[in-house]
Structures are given as structure tokens and as C-alpha cells.
Amino acid sequence: MPSFLSRRLPSVAAAPTTAGAIALLVLLGRYAAPHDPAQQIGPPWSPPGSGALLGTDGLGRDVLSRVLHGGTQLLAVSLLAAVVAVSCGTLLGLTAGWAGGRTARAVFWLCDLLLAVPALVLALVLAVALPGGTAVVVASVLSGTPLTARVVAGESARLRTSGHVQAALERGETVPSVLAREVLPALRGLVTADAGLRLVTALQIAAALAVLGLGPQPPEPDWALMLSENLSGAALNPAALLAPAALLACCAWALAAAAHRAGSAKGAVA
What we know:
The protein is built from twelve helices and no strands. It has 270 residues and is mostly helical. Mean pLDDT is 87; it is low at 1-10.
């Protein structure tokens, strides 16, 4: 996102605050839930009222309680997938950017091969043989690693000829030391911003699998699973569908925007 947009749009500046609020909701929300998320408290599809702030779902369970319990597994799996994808992509990118030549061509060939299969299709195939969470992690890593690797490879190749890197080599430092002390710190803004994109992609894959019934299973409270569970009763209690949908949308936007802002700030410092 261009820097001038960050200055002009107040909502972008609020992204870290929104991301922090969502993190607190995920970590502590279950302790504020008024009911057990699996407990029936009223008739199915009851509209919001005094007994249930967001009404009930198709089984008469409190929507608010399920929302407050619902984001932990979704975000944990997405975060793990993003961390592994960025780590693998950064390692591959550093290798290709520094070595160049045949090594770079081999890495880029592998990246092109992995990118040939759409991430969601890959996740659907993997979900047949693997648990939903594992399928999300593997699919996110296989689809996200090539993108991170290409970005990091281009920038690390440019940094290889920079003055501070050449000076470190002239001092006799080893290549691993130069990569760790000189190249990686210069890439931290880029990698941080890219991590936000990998996290959002993993979140989308996890949500898609859950909606299709290949992720958490009922009666597990999960924001994405709540979309498929409450779709048929949206006309009776729209809040049962809109609440988890709004949280998923805010979560994806806030994480991506916050990572971009953090990456821009670190890049400016570097």
C-alpha cells in the first residue's frame, strides 16, 4: 500500500489497534462469554434480545458466546502456516539471490512448479488425506513459499553488491555471517510486510475449508464454520451470519494493513 494512502486514510492508521483488539478478543474473549458455546439457551434463530445480545443460531445456541470462542484455532493455524511459509521462502530467496546462476534458476523453477497449482485446489486435495489444520499449513506453505522466495531473492541479489555487504566480505566474514548480520536486517521490512500477506492467505484457506466442512467439525465454535451453519437462517437472525463474517473481514484487513505498516516502518529505519 503506498505511503500516501497511509497518510490520507485514518482507517489504515487504525490497523494496528484493530489487530490488537482482535488478538485480545481471540485470547480473552472466551472468558467473557455469557454462556457455554454448546448450550441451548432458546428457540432456534431467535433475534437479538436481552437474553442473547446477538440472538441464537439454528440449534438455539448463543451466537455471542460462539463468536467469543471462535477465533482461537482459526488464527493459530493461520499464524503457524504464515510463519513456516515466510521462513521457508526467506531461506530459499536468500539462497537464490546470493548464489545466482544455476542455483537461482533451480529455485525459480521450483517456485514456478509450486505456483502452477492454485492454493485452494491444493488445500482441497490435501484435506482429503490430512486433518483440516494440517492441510491449511501444508497448502499455505507450498503456495506461499514461492511468492516470498521470489521477492526476497530479488532484493537479496541487489543487496549483495551494496557497500556494507562488500565491506563485510572484505573484512573476512563468512557468507552465513554476512547473510545474518547484513542482509537479513535490511530485508526485515520487506519480510514483515510479506508475512502479512501470507497470514491473510492462510486465513482465507482455513476459512474456505471450514465453510466446505473440511475444517473444524460441529459443535466446535469457529467463525468460518458459523458461516455455513447459519446461512440457512440468515433471514430469521442475520446477526448469526453477519457477526462471524464481519470478524473474519476485519481480521484479514487489520492483519494485512498492520503488517504493511510495520514493514514500512522497519524499512524506513533500515
